[in-house]
Fold this protein.
Amino acid sequence: MVHSKTDWECKSTYKVSTNSHGINLVALSNEGGSTQVTVERGHVTSWRNKQGDELLFTSTKIPRPPSAARGGIPVCFPQFGPSASLEANGQARNEGWKIDNDPPPLIHKYCRGKSYVDLLRKPSKEELRRWPHSYEFRLRVLLAYDGNLNMISRIRNIDSKPFSFSFGYHTYLSVSDISEVRIEGLETLDYLDNLSDRKRFTEHGDAITFESEVDRAYLCTPSCIAVVDHGKKRTVVIKKEGLPDAVVWNPWERKSKTMADFGKVDYRKMVCVDGAVIERPIALKPGEEWTGCLELEHVPSSFCSDKYDSRLKHF
Ligand SMILES: O=P(O)(O)OC[C@H]1O[C@@H](O)[C@H](O)[C@@H](O)[C@@H]1O
C-alpha cells in the first residue's frame, strides 16, 4: 500500500495500492460506491465508474511484449503520429517507469482531494541511442471522488542541448458501437488527414460520426471535447491543457484486419480521441519544463450540445 487517506469535505476515502497487475487508484465514497483506475508501466489500462462499467477499450487479443498494448491510455512521447525517423506513437509507453513514493508538491487545480500516484522515468541507454536527449518525465495519474480521471505530464530537459517533441494521450475509449458515436467540439476546424499524406482539410459537418476509417489530427482545438455514445447512454468529456491538437482515430474493418491484436469486431467497440501536440512540437531549452494535462469526465447521456457549450465557456 502506498497510501490511503480520507477527505471529510468530499466524504471520500482514497486508496493507492500495488499488485502484480500494476497500481490501483480507488476513490470510495463514504456514502457507498467506488471508482477505480489501474496504471501499468506508465499506461492507464482501466477506468471504472461507480456502476463498475469499464470506460476504456482494450483490444481482445493481447500482444506479447515488447509490442505496445492497444488500449487504455498510453502516453506517447517523444513522437506522436507517423515519423520517418522515430517509432510512431513514441517509445515511452513501452518502457519501464518507477513509482515516486515521495513526490515533490504540485500546485494545480487538478490535484485537490484525489487519489494519485507519481511515476517517473529517464531515458535508458538503448533509448538514448534512438533519441539522444536526456529528459525527466514525471506522470501524475489522479482519480477524484466523482470518478474524474486526470493525467498530468511534466517533461523536463535535463540535457545540455535543446530538444523538441510531439506528444499525445492516446485515449482508447470503449463505446457501444462506433455507429452510435458522435464527437462534438471539433466542427469547422482544420485537420491533417493521415489517410491523405497529412494534407490539410477543413471539417464541415455538424459533429463527427463514423462510417469508414478515420485518422485525423485536428488543429488548434478547444480545451473541451465531448464523445457522445448514444448506445451506452453516456458521454465522456475530454478536457485538456497544453495540448492544442486532437487526434481522432478508428481503423475500421479493413485496417483492423491487418492488426494482429485486434479481434474481428474490436474496431466497432472503440474510438481514440487523443489530446495531443502535433502541428507545433514543443521545444525545450536545457532546464525548461513542459506540462500537459488531461481530464476525463463521465456524464449521463442527457448531456447535450447546449450543456456542453455552456460548460465549455466555463472551463
Ligand atoms: O500505436 P497504436 O496504439 O497502434 O495506434 C495506432 C494509430 O494511432 C493513431 O493515433 C494514429 O493517428 C494512427 O495513424 C495509428 O495507426
User: Anything to note?
Assistant: The first strand starts at residue 3 and ends at 7. The chain has a mean pLDDT of 88. Residues 68, 70, 81, 89, 170, 194, 215, 247, 249, 272, 274 surround 6-O-phosphono-beta-D-glucopyranose (CB under 6 Å).
